[in-house]
Amino acid sequence: MPITTSKLTRRGFLKLGLVTGATLSLVGVTLGVTSWVTNQTASGFSYLRSQDIAMLKAVLPVIYAGTSNPENQPAQLAASLTMIDYNLAHLSPSMRKLTLQLFDLLTNPITQGSLTGVWGAWSAASPETIQNFLNRWQASRWTLLNQGQAAILQLARLAFYSQPSSWQICGYPGPPNLG
Amino acid sequence: MAISDVFLEGVQAGWQVHNASLFEKDQQLEVDVVIVGSGAGGATTAEILTAAGLRVLVVEEGPLRTSSDFKMQEATAYAELYQEGMARMSKDGGISIMQGRAVGGSTLINWTSSFRTPPATLEHWADKHEVSGLSEQTLKPWFERMEKRLGIEPWPIAANANNEVIKRGCQTLGYDWAVIPRNVRDCLSLGFCGMGCPANAKQSMLVTCLPATLQQGGELLYLARAERLTFKQGRVEQLECLALDARGVETTGKRIAIKAKHYILAGGAINTPAILLRSQAPDPYKLCGKRTFLHPVNFSAAQFVDEINPFYGAPQSIYSDHFQWQEGAAGAMGYKLEVPPLHPAFAATILGGKGQVNAQRMAKLPNTHMMLALMRDGFHPASASGKVELRSDGSPVLDYQMTDFTWQAMRRAYHSMAEIQFAAGAEKVFPVHNQADYMTSLAETQRVIDGLDLAIHRARLGSAHVMGGCALSDNPKQGVTNSWGVHHQLENLSVHDGSVFPTSIGANPQLSIYAIAALFSDQLLKICV
Ligand SMILES: Cc1cc2nc3c(=O)[nH]c(=O)nc-3n(C[C@H](O)[C@H](O)[C@H](O)COP(=O)(O)OP(=O)(O)OC[C@H]3O[C@@H](n4cnc5c(N)ncnc54)[C@H](O)[C@@H]3O)c2cc1C
Ligand code: SF4
Predict the structure, then answer these.
(1) Where in chain B are the domains?
(2) A8 pLDDT higher than 80
(3) A156 in a domain, yes or no?
C-alpha cells in the first residue's frame, strides 16, 4: 500500500479553532511531528481510509451495543460504514477535513495510545477499553476531546438510525406509502 | 395518488433554470437585479421585482430537488438539503446549527410554523436600535399579503400527540398556550416537512414565489456560489460566482461574473455576512457578522405510557409563550416552548448516550415526547451572541459564546418543560444533558436540574433559526444596512434575509423574513423603476 505524508500539523488544528489553552500543550507534544499514515482511500470508499475503517469497526459496535441481535451486526456495520462515507462526501470541505483529522488522531501511532488509551491495533481493543476512551473524552475538560467524542457519536448515530434495518429496534414503521 | 411535481413541469415547459455544475466555460451575465439565495427572503423579493418588470436572476449554491425527489428519508435529506451536510455547528462545536441549502433555501426543509414578528420585538428595535418604519402597523399589510400568498392559517386539525403534550400540560397548570399558524395547503399531516414535502403541500418558496418568478420570465442559476462582490466608487461593480459540482460541495473551476443595476444578498444569516467579509466590503464600524443570533434551544424528553409516535403528524402545531415576555423585552431572557418532530436519526442525536443507554432510550421512541425551549437572544446586553468568521478556505463559521445570563434562562426552561411534561401525564422526564437521565418524579427532576453543570458539550444544544449579522439601523454605527435593508456604504446593494434582524425575533422567523423582504422590495421599486 502506498504511504504518503499526512500534514497533521499543530497549525492545522489551531486554525480550526478547536483547541483551548489547556489542550495546546497536549496537541503540541503529540502533533509537533509529521507522522506517517496512509491517505489512500479504502477500496469501495470515497473518503474512508483503511485505518479509519479498522478503527470504526472496533468503535461502532461499542456505540451500537444493545441495538441489535448479533447475526444482524456485520451487515449493519457494513451499511453504517457506507453511510458514514456518503455523509463525508456531503460535508463541506472544511468539516470533512476536520473529521478526517480526528480520525488521524485516533489512528496515528504517535497519538492514538496517549489520547485514547488504546495501544496497539484497534481490532484487539476490548469493548471496555473503548468505552473508557469515549467516556473519558466526553467528561474531559478539554473542548477538543469533548468535540471529538460528540462528532464520533453523531456520525455513528446518523449512519445507524437512518437505515431501515434499524427501524424495528426503535419502533419506527418508516415513512408512509404515498402510492 | 399522483402528486404533480409543479417545479419539474415548469422546467420542462421552458422556465429559465440553469445548472452551473454543467457549465463548460466561464460565463458573463447581465441583468437588472441579481439576488443571492433562493430562500425566504430571496424568493419573496424575486417574485415582487419580476412582477414589476425587472429582469431578475436568482443565484443559489444548493442543488435543485423537487417533490418527486423527496422520499422522506433522513439518510439523504440531511446530507443533500442542509448547510455543510447537516454538520454546521458553532465554532466550539457546542451548538448544532441547521440551515437549508437547496433551491428554496431553509423554507424547503422548515417545519412550517408561521408567526408575525412580536410587537414587543419591533418596539425594541425602534427604541434600542434606531430602526424606523418597521412598526406593527406598517408591517400589517405585508403580513396579511404573505399570509394569503402562502396559505398561512392556524392549524385547523387536532394536534399530534407530541404537540398535544404542551396543550395538556399548560391547561393543567394554567399556563398560556395557542395553536400555531402553518404555511400549508392540502397538508396530508405526514410529518416529514424537515426532509422536503413530498406532497407540495408546504407552501415553501419552491412551490410559490420561485415558480411565480420563473413564470414571469425571471431566471434561476443553481449550484453556483456567490463568492465575492467587487466595488468601484462606492458601488458594487460585479458579483463573482463559482460553479459547484453536482453535490454542491467542490468547485468545478468555472466562474460566472454577473453585472446588475442592483445587488441583493439573501443567503441567510452566517452566509450573507460571509459574502461581505470575503469581499472586504467597506465596514467602517466593524459590524458585519457581529450580533448573529440563534434562538439557541435546549431540550427535555419525556416518556408516556400511551404512544406519542412523534415522527408522524404536522410537526409543530401548539406552542406556549407563557415564559417569553415575563420581564418585558429587555429583562431576564424569555423563551418560547415548542416541540420538534422526532425521526430516528434526529432523535438519536438528541437523546444521546451510547451502548445500552442509547439503545434503551431509542427503543422507547414511539412513547417519547420531546419539548424544546427557544431562547430569545440579543435583547439584553448580557445575552449570548455570535460573530461570523471566515475559515482559511473562505467558508464561514459562527463563533457563538454562551453567557451566564443565557444559561440561567436555559435552567429555568428545563424546569418549565419538566413541569409541563409531568403535568401532561409523563411517566418519566429527561432534561437532555450528559449528567441527567430519565426520572420519575418532578421533585427529583427539579433537584437534578438545579445541580446541572450548564456548559457546552454537557447540555445538548441546537439551533434552526439563524438571524442577524447585517443589522438594520438608521445609524451607520449600529447597523450594516439602513431601515430599508440598503447597505450604508454601498447604495446599489441591499440585504433581504434573516441577517438584517438587530436581535433574534422571539418567534420562528420565516414570516418576519417574508414580510420584511416584501416591504423592502416595494421600497426598492420606488428607487429602481
Ligand atoms: C429544520 C428547520 C426547521 C425550521 N422550522 C421553521 C418553522 O417552522 N418556522 C419558521 O418560521 N422558521 C423555521 N425555520 C427557519 C426558517 O426556515 C429560516 O429562518 C428562513 O428560511 C431563513 O430565510 P433566509 O432568507 O434568511 O435564508 P434561507 O431560507 O436559509 O435561504 C438562503 C439560501 O441562500 C443560499 N446561499 C447561501 N449563501 C449563498 C451563496 N454564497 N451563494 C449562493 N447561494 C447562497 C442557501 O443555500 C439557501 O438556499 C426552520 C429552519 C430549519 C433549518
Ligand atoms: S406535514 Fe404537510 S407540509 Fe409537512 S411534509 Fe407532510 S404533507 Fe407536507
Answers:
(1) 6-65+74-112+115-149+190-291+465-528, 161-183+297-376+403-455
(2) no
(3) yes
Q: From the candidates A64, A76, A80, A92, which should be mutated to test the interface with B, based on the most B CB atoms within 10 A?
A: A92
Between the CA of B91 and the centroid of ligand 1 the distance, in Å, is: 20
Summarised one tens digit per residue, pLDDT across range B181-206 is: 999 999 999 999 999 999 999 999 99
Taking 60 as the threshold, does the pLDDT of residue A3 lie above it?
Answer: no
Report, as ranges of residue numbers, the positions in chain B whose pLDDT lies below 50.
none
Query: With contact defined as beta carbons under 8 Å apart, do B296 and B95 qualify?
Result: yes
B108 pocket-lining for ligand 2 (C-beta < 6 Å): no
Task: Give me the domain span that covers residue A158.
Answer: 41-167
For residues B106-137, one letter each, b for 16 or more C-beta atoms within 10 angstroms of the residue's C-beta and e for the rest, the string is bbbbbbbbbbbbbebbbebbeebbbbeebeee
Written as nine digits, the cell of A6 is 499526512
Distance CA B404, CA B418 (A): 21
Instruction: Mark B31-59 as b/e (b = at least 16 C-beta within 10 Å).
Output: bbbbbbbbbbbbbbbbbbbbebebbbbbb
Instruction: Tell me the three cell numbers of residue B180.
Output: 400555531
Number of domains in chain A: 1
> Model-level pTM?
0.95
In this structure, which CATH number among 2.60.120, 1.10.287, 3.30.2010, 3.30.410 belongs to the domain B161-183+297-376+403-455?
3.30.410
B72 in ligand 2 pocket by Cβ < 6 Å? no
Give A178's contacts in chain B (Cβ within 8 Å).
1, 3, 198-199
Q: How close is the nearest chain B Cα to the Cα of A108, in Å? A: 23
- Picking from A90, A131, A147, the nearest residue to B85 by CB comes out as A90
| Number of CB atoms found within 10 A of residue A36's CB | 12
Between CA B62 and CA B389, with CA B229 as vertex, the angle to 5 degrees is 70
- Cβ of residue B388 lying under 6 Å from some atom of ligand 1: no
Nearest CA to ligand 1 atom 37: B267
C-alpha separations of B283 from B265, B273, B349, B476, B504 in Å: 16, 11, 39, 9, 22
The answer to whether B85 faces chain A, any CB pair under 8 Å, is yes
Q: What superfamily would CATH give domain B6-65+74-112+115-149+190-291+465-528?
A: FAD/NAD(P)-binding domain (3.50.50.60)
Question: What is this model's ipTM?
Answer: 0.94
Calculate how far, in angstroms, residue A155's C-alpha sits from the geometric centre of ligand 1. 23
